[in-house]
Amino acid sequence: MQQFKCVLMGILILVAACKKDNYYKDSGSHDPHFKGSTLDYLDSVPFYFDSVAAVVRLAGMEEVFKNDTLTFFAPTDKSILNLVKELNYSLYTLGYDTVKVLADVPSDIWQKYLQMYMFHGASQLKDYPQIDYNLKAVYPGQGYLSWNGTPMNIGVVYNDDNGVKYVGYRQLSIAYIPDPARPLDNWYTEFIASSNLVTDNGVVHTLNVNHRYFGFSVSRFIADMQNAMQNGG
Question: How far apart are CA 205 and CA 29, in angstroms?
Fold first, then answer.
């Protein structure tokens, strides 16, 4: 009898969980509404966003993240750590001083690459079109300009389920388009681990922790940093 009660309780918990809004693909159900600004949200999750929040402030974008209506595809701190490691290796090899704290990177460089993840308005997963990376001609997602006018593609991948096409879970993706003259080539594509976190002034979609480098293209970031150092920045 006790065993039956335990099984029944487990079924009830599972059913209840399935009824909640699930905006995390891998980590269970969460309340998708945060009482506070987008910057407040980043500050509230320091394990993932401590360095990201610092970059927001170093880039001079603090008021935007507090007050403007904003969709933010949030990279995690891991991508900044990877970037700084690669950057320092290049700077050391070329004989430049390495980056010891994030403030060693000029504000305008942080701003340039942070704004690649920022978009005007508050857009949730349902607001983006389908993309199929194997059938871009049919389901291409859509091109968007980020906050600073960088060409990006955003789309929703409709995954398969038990061999049935497009009926599985839906996952946002974002891609940096390095050459606007060749808008379908050489994308830097990243997938979203959690979507639709609604703040008081926008929406946050968190990139997968496997997003390798903050700014998508580490070579561009390094080139900008070297140029700044050569010019006394």
Answer: 15
Read off the CATH number of the domain in which 226 is found: 2.30.180.10
Give the residue among 74, 77, 80 at the shortest CA–CA distance from 99. 80
E-strand ranges in the chain read 70-74, 118-120, 142-145, 151-158, 170-176, 188-199, 202-207
pTM: 0.86
Number of separate domains in the chain: 1
For residue 24, tell me if it sits in a domain: no
3-class DSSP assignment, residue 201: coil
The per-residue pLDDT for range 148-185, each reduced to its tens digit, is: 999 999 999 999 999 999 999 999 999 999 999 998 89
Is 7 within the bounds of a domain?
no
Is 97 strand, coil or helix? coil
